[in-house]
Amino acid sequence: NRKMADSWPIPIGHVRTSWRLSSTLTILAVAAVGKIYLRLTTKVSLRNWEKLIRIVKERPKGVPVVTISNHTSCIDDPLLWSLLPLSLLGTEKGQRWIPGANEVIFTNQLYSSFFSRGKLVPVVRGDGVYQRGMDFLITKLNQGGWVHVFPEGKVNLEKKFIRLKWGVGRLIAE
Q: Do 167 and 132 touch, CB atoms closer than 8 A?
């Protein structure tokens, strides 16, 4: 199904305070659960994490950030960012936008509302690099936002090389 649940789930233009607040609360709640999960189930070793925090936190106004990582499970995204300090995640600068597969994530109104507040952007696989979700992410970058990408465009369970998606190049080039 290539159609989004009902309509574009992310406000365009002036974003109401209630939406921004519910987005920040969603991100903080998911991060808190992720922190507990990681603490109880695994030992995490981080390298150069302080550099990422410094880049995200201290970048000048209007300077975008693009981060890229491999995608090995459906919980990569929330667990990865739950490692950031909650004080950073509670700020606009510390909240990343990320493309998400429309046919997997944005399948009904409840999911669309939840995941869009987590700053996932619907992208339709197979519709190419010139589509609404990619345009939205480029706008966010041009405004000095942070966009994270899993360049394989899907979970890589076999851990084999998968050709990177063209949209990654468009995000960086534009």
A: no
